[in-house]
Design goal:
The protein is mainly beta and 356 residues long. It has five helices and 22 strands. Strands 14-15-22-21-17-18 form a six-stranded mixed sheet, with no helix packed on it. Strand 17 and strand 18 form a beta hairpin. It is globular and about 70 Å long.
Length: 356
């Protein structure tokens, strides 16, 4: 099969796509994503961890350092909360020109029931210094980026780390974390893109100066032009709605085929900035829009919100679209705003449907 240069996927991108995986969009029909369907991105290799020997170290600008086993962490007060997590690069493959990295379409998302112990009490127990600025989270995964060998480390402002809903998570959907999801422990930072949710967590370091590690300073920043060296950091998830494509798919093109008549379109919507307040659906490629019916708010602030739309499918070719808005006034754009990393592309989803 021939491809234009714009469409072609490199061997390196294919290797990334083979080891990572997205959530099939039909799984949007689940409120909680089954573990095996939840999206997955692994920067380096999956560490093999002996949980009996593993320890979490909390040190740095604190009054007392802590060294905790998994059993000790699991003996602390536990919280279970549904949290939607999305990769910052979700939608990257739909940009033009396409940034070279994991070629996500729209499937890099999922919602799990995460269980763990809140981080804030641990920071209080350690006695965070009054001069603390950032907190660095170090994983066991190690690789090379920008020509430098490094651990995967992300920094977070100390006030953000003290949020009561930030967890040190050790279970997903009622079971211990699978190896690929960060066993035995990972950071759970509700509302933020997935790059911040450090997996295989081994160390938490409180810093009295800004964190300057690669994953914050070089990676995961919005840069619009080649001259934009610093950019702005990628943080919370942009407002987005996705639909479970109706009908049945063509095997190769994934174009949908649907019978004439009433059809209920369903999907989910979420935002890392504010609760979802509405979803609109279009059956003509975005020329006209109508309000969808939102599901009642769930108990979880950080879980996606369900929606449904009754569509009377008429014969012909259609392009279904959906867009969400949140309480902060954010609304999905019709067209993506390009950036060099391909981050936060929340342009409206478009699904081609043949009705007969």
């Amino acid at each position: 099969m021939a491809f234009s240069d714009e469409q072609s996927i490199s061997r390196e991108e294919l290797a990334l796509a083979a080891r990572n995986h997205g959530m099939p969009l039909e799984a949007l029909r689940y409120d909680i994503t089954p573990t095996g369907l939840h999206y997955l991105l692994i920067h380096y290799d999956i560490p093999v961890v002996d949980s009996a020997a593993w320890r979490l170290e909390l040190d740095g600008s604190v009054e007392r350092s802590l060294l905790l086993s998994l059993d000790e962490l699991m003996a602390r007060p536990a919280v279970t909360q549904p949290v939607t997590m999305e990769c910052a690069g979700n939608g990257r493959a739909r940009l033009s020109p396409r940034p070279i990295s994991q070629p996500w379409l729209l499937e890099a998302v999922g919602t799990g029931q995460w269980t763990g112990t809140p981080l804030a009490p641990l920071l209080e127990e350690a006695g965070v210094g009054g001069d603390a600025i950032d907190v660095a989270f170090t994983g066991l995964d190690r690789g090379v980026e920008g020509g430098v060998e490094q651990d995967y480390v992300r920094g977070l402002a100390v006030d953000e780390a003290r949020r009561p809903d930030v967890l040190l998570a050790y279970a997903l959907n009622g079971q211990p974390l699978p190896p690929q999801h960060g066993y035995p422990l990972r950071l759970l930072l509700p509302g933020w893109y997935g790059m911040a949710q450090v997996k295989w967590l081994r160390r938490i370091t409180v810093l009295d100066e800004p964190f300057t590690g690669y994953q914050n300073v070089k990676a995961y920043r919005y840069r619009r032009t080649p001259d934009d060296d610093e950019g702005t950091p990628v943080t919370r998830m942009a407002c987005r709605a996705l639909m479970a494509p109706p009908g049945i798919p063509d095997f190769l093109s994934r174009r949908r085929h649907l019978n004439v008549g009433p059809c209920t379109i369903v999907g989910k919507a979420w935002s890392g900035w504010a609760p979802i307040t509405g979803v609109e659906v279009s059956a003509d490629g975005g020329e006209t829009w109508a309000e969808a019916e939102l599901a009642p708010r769930s108990d979880g602030r950080w879980s996606w919100r369900g929606w449904r739309f009754a569509w009377d499918a008429e014969p012909g070719e259609h392009e279904l679209c959906c867009r969400a808005r949140d309480e902060a006034g954010n609304e999905q754009p019709l067209q993506a705003q390009w950036n060099r990393g391909g981050y936060a592309n929340n342009a409206v989803q478009r699904v081609a449907v043949s009705v007969s």
